[in-house]
Write a structure and sequence with these properties.
Layout: H1 2-9, H2 15-33, H3 36-40, E1 49-54, H4 59-72, E2 77-84, E3 89-94, E4 101-104, H5 108-114, E5 119-124, H6 133-146, E6 152-156, H7 185-191, H8 198-205, H9 211-225, E7 228-231, H10 234-243, E8 251-253, E9 272-279, H11 286-293, E10 300-307, E11 316-317, H12 326-332, E12 337-340, H13 350-357, E13 362-365, H14 368-374, E14 380-383, H15 388-403
Helix pairs in contact: 1-2, 5-6, 11-15
Length: 404
């Protein structure tokens, strides 16, 4: 629809008037379309419904959702619910036809909307970025309770929001908390800043004022309402069971499907070339890389196959890439090993699987799903502590052994 609005507005010569006209056209069209019945009238095959609660932040969770939709949409009518912090509205999208959209500023409207349909499944895929995740849990309970046949409720463990609003379990000191803080979780939460932007910080905190209350609500939901909790590695299952022992029998471990890449043939070379895959934020280990950069010499190259900002001048940034191109990129850059520098226990890590599938040596810290796989990988190195200068020495020695 945006394309036709742009065409309609292109003839207006003055930019300010063109913008106002465009907004007016959009709102007129939107008001006519923003009707939940538009979504429901398109289910001509009478397929059972899935409500899919999701975030709108992209990343690996987005990749997972799209792959699941491709599997499910022939048998189910999927309605994806997302909260978009930018416009402070909940969006309900019919996955089979993304043009059919209903939005609302009130979470309770989701519940009223759901009363009009027979729901077979509710998937709580990810609630990060919702203004109040606990409200959504209450709404999901009400939706399930008012259905003629109770829907199956599945929770996906893409992160640890159900344990703490700091969904990667990074404490107020910037380190992985291991479900324990020296002066207690409540003291940590009082000092925890989720984002430097105040609005983003409030959104990511998701209405949480007390970790005790937060965990009580999630514990009740997982124990009493959820039928299953799907996680993607045994290491992550252990973390969830440590937090909530009574959900052990509900947890199902289903690793992500990954793309098998061809084994690479790295040309002989003198220097050490260490690759880091993906867009590297501080949770993904950006500070580790920056500190390592202070200790490398002319015989060592650290290459970010992706992006990191800001990056030290002696770090090479390759930029965006397609997964299919990784073997060619690795060979061209003469990569000796791949380093996964995440400082939190990632729940899966596509980049770890991609590196291993190419037959490259892989290095990571001793936490989460990456370590679970790298420990059993013949060309793997698991670093026991996070100490960038020492880690760099270990990596250099490891690569030297691999070359021999």
């Amino acid at each position: 629809m945006n394309r036709w609005i742009n065409i309609a507005c292109v003839w207006i010569p003055i930019p300010s008037i063109r913008r106002r006209f465009r907004v007016a056209l959009y709102h007129r069209w939107f008001d006519r379309q923003n009707n939940p019945n538009v979504l429901l009238n398109n289910n001509t095959d009478k397929k059972p419904y899935i409500l899919w609660f999701d975030h709108a932040l992209g990343g690996g969770t987005e990749t997972y959702s799209k792959r699941q939709f491709n599997k499910l949409q022939n048998k189910f009518e999927i309605l994806r619910i997302q909260y978009r912090p930018r416009n402070k509205r909940f969006h309900i999208t019919r996955v089979q036809n993304k043009n059919h959209l209903y939005t609302t500023a009130q979470a309770t409207d989701i519940q009223q909307f759901a009363h009009q349909i027979n729901i077979d499944k509710i998937v709580v895929n990810n609630l990060v970025g919702y203004p109040n995740a606990l409200d959504i849990l209450h709404i999901i309970k009400n939706i399930a309770a008012t259905q003629y046949i109770r829907p199956h409720i599945s929770v996906r463990g893409h992160d640890f929001q159900s344990i703490c609003p700091s969904f990667n379990l990074i404490n107020c000191d910037g380190a992985y908390c291991k479900l324990n803080y020296k002066t207690g979780c409540e003291n940590c939460w009082k000092r925890k800043i989720m984002a430097t932007n105040p609005t983003a910080n409030a959104t990511l905190k998701s209405g949480a004022t007390s970790i005790k209350i937060w965990q009580q609500n999630w514990r009740n939901f997982l124990e009493q309402s959820a039928d299953e909790i799907v996680v993607f590695s045994d290491a992550i299952k252990d973390i969830f069971v440590t937090a909530y022992p009574n959900i052990k029998n509900k947890i199902v471990v289903i690793p992500h499907e990954t793309q098998n890449l061809r084994h690479v043939k790295i040309p002989k070379h003198k220097k050490i070339n260490l690759a880091v895959l993906g867009n590297i934020s501080w949770q993904k280990g950006a500070n580790v890389i920056r500190e390592m950069a202070q200790h490398i010499d002319k015989n060592i190259n650290i290459i970010i196959i992706g992006n990191m900002r800001p990056a030290p001048k002696n770090i090479r940034i390759y930029g965006r890439y397609k997964t299919d191109d990784l073997p060619r990129i690795m060979e061209k850059q003469k990569i000796d090993a791949v380093f996964i520098p995440s400082v939190w226990p990632e729940t899966f890590s596509y980049t770890t699987s991609e590196a291993m599938s190419m037959g490259l040596p892989v290095i990571c810290f001793d936490m989460g799903a990456p370590a679970e796989r790298v420990k059993h990988y013949a060309k793997g190195l698991v670093l026991k502590t996070i100490n960038p200068p020492e880690n760099l020495n270990e990596i250099i020695e490891f690569i030297a052994r691999q070359k021999l």
